[in-house]
UniProtKB/TrEMBL annotation:
<feature type="transmembrane region" description="Helical">
    <location>
        <begin position="150"/>
        <end position="169"/>
    </location>
</feature>
<dbReference type="GO" id="GO:0080120">
    <property type="term" value="P:CAAX-box protein maturation"/>
</dbReference>
<feature type="transmembrane region" description="Helical">
    <location>
        <begin position="175"/>
        <end position="194"/>
    </location>
</feature>
<keyword id="KW-1133">Transmembrane helix</keyword>
<feature type="transmembrane region" description="Helical">
    <location>
        <begin position="7"/>
        <end position="25"/>
    </location>
</feature>
<feature type="transmembrane region" description="Helical">
    <location>
        <begin position="37"/>
        <end position="57"/>
    </location>
</feature>
<dbReference type="GO" id="GO:0004175">
    <property type="term" value="F:endopeptidase activity"/>
</dbReference>
<dbReference type="InterPro" id="IPR003675">
    <property type="entry name" value="Rce1/LyrA-like_dom"/>
</dbReference>
<comment type="similarity">
    <text>Belongs to the UPF0177 family.</text>
</comment>
<dbReference type="Pfam" id="PF02517">
    <property type="entry name" value="Rce1-like"/>
</dbReference>
<keyword id="KW-0812">Transmembrane</keyword>
<feature type="transmembrane region" description="Helical">
    <location>
        <begin position="110"/>
        <end position="129"/>
    </location>
</feature>
<dbReference type="InterPro" id="IPR052710">
    <property type="entry name" value="CAAX_protease"/>
</dbReference>
<feature type="domain" description="CAAX prenyl protease 2/Lysostaphin resistance protein A-like">
    <location>
        <begin position="119"/>
        <end position="211"/>
    </location>
</feature>
<keyword id="KW-0472">Membrane</keyword>
<feature type="transmembrane region" description="Helical">
    <location>
        <begin position="77"/>
        <end position="98"/>
    </location>
</feature>
<feature type="transmembrane region" description="Helical">
    <location>
        <begin position="206"/>
        <end position="225"/>
    </location>
</feature>
Length: 227
């Protein structure tokens, strides 16, 4: 039986403050910056601060798990690719079930942003999110509560719900549109539960989000060459 992970309540409390603080600060950005590029740049800075804070709080977990993860990096990479495919399948299925309650505006589309340059800069947040979100939602809010009976699975549900809700700004507060991401959050929690290594989650999540970044990069290239 895998021993109970140690719970650092101070680190947990600080980590759990990162998403609401990011959302709170982000709510002021439109009021402070009239230009879209300025809003995007300051949003990137806010996300970068949260990214650094999450890594610093759980640097020992990241360091320890990395030593094991890199020993079988190729196998773990293949598992991550499979995890990404499953993630998109989950999104597709859940969205199809919720289709009667979803409007086309409820699902974000990175290609719909005003300019390719702003789109590319804005998409930098998706390269940081896998680290920040896996540390907070999968480790602080779920995995470190492992082997604690009912509490473990209550945290499983809570972490999945909160993971969906953290995308509040992406969906303009449309909770129904966040439900597919709650399902993906539950899937990522299971990946961590089975793999017992946070880097498996980070890599899976990174590859999932990297597709969005590639879309923004492709749009930028097409715009740059006037295609």
């Amino acid at each position: 039986m895998v021993p109970r992970p140690r719970i650092d309540l101070i680190a947990t409390g600080l980590a759990c403050l990162i998403p609401p603080v990011e959302l709170w600060l982000g709510s002021f950005v439109p009021q402070l910056f009239a230009h879209r590029l300025g809003r995007v740049l300051i949003t990137d800075v806010i996300f970068f601060a949260g990214f650094c804070g999450a890594i610093w709080l759980y640097r020992s977990v990241l360091r320890t798990d990395w030593r094991e993860f890199k020993k079988h990096w190729f196998v773990n990479f293949i598992k991550a690719v499979g995890g990404v495919i499953a993630s998109y399948a989950i999104l597709l299925v859940v969205r199809s079930l919720l289709k009667p309650w979803l409007s086309s505006s409820g699902v974000p589309d990175v290609l719909s942003m005003q300019t390719a340059t702003v789109t590319l800069i804005a998409s930098l947040t998706v390269l940081m999110a896998p680290f920040t979100e896996e540390i907070i939602f999968r480790h602080a809010l779920f995995y470190q509560w492992r082997n604690r009976g009912v509490l473990t699975w209550l945290m499983f549900v809570l972490s999945a719900i909160l993971f969906g809700l953290v995308h509040w700004n992406n969906f303009d507060g449309n909770i129904v549109a966040m439900i597919p991401y709650m399902a993906v959050g539950a899937w990522y929690a299971l990946i961590y539960y089975w793999s017992r290594n946070i880097w498996q989650n980070i890599l899976t999540h990174f590859l999932f989000d990297f597709i969005q970044f590639l879309s923004a990069l492709l749009l930028f290239i097409l715009a740059f060459f006037g295609i």
